[in-house]
Amino acid sequence: SGKLAPDYVLRPLQLSDYRAGVLEVLKDLTTVGDISEERFTEQFEYMRARQGEYFVIIIEKIATGNVVGVGSLLVERKFIHECGLVGHIEDIAVAKSEQGKKLGIKIIGALDFIGKKIGCYKIILDCSPHNEQFYVKCGYSNAGFEMTKRF
Amino acid sequence: SGKLAPDYVLRPLQLSDYRAGVLEVLKDLTTVGDISEERFTEQFEYMRARQGEYFVIIIEKIATGNVVGVGSLLVERKFIHECGLVGHIEDIAVAKSEQGKKLGIKIIGALDFIGKKIGCYKIILDCSPHNEQFYVKCGYSNAGFEMTKRF
Ligand SMILES: CC(=O)N[C@@H]1[C@@H](O)[C@H](O)[C@@H](COP(=O)(O)O)O[C@@H]1O
Ligand SMILES: CC(=O)N[C@@H]1[C@@H](O)[C@H](O)[C@@H](COP(=O)(O)O)O[C@@H]1O
Question: In what residue span(s) does the N-acetyltransferase domain sit (chains A, B) (predicted)?
Answer without folding.
Answer: 8-151
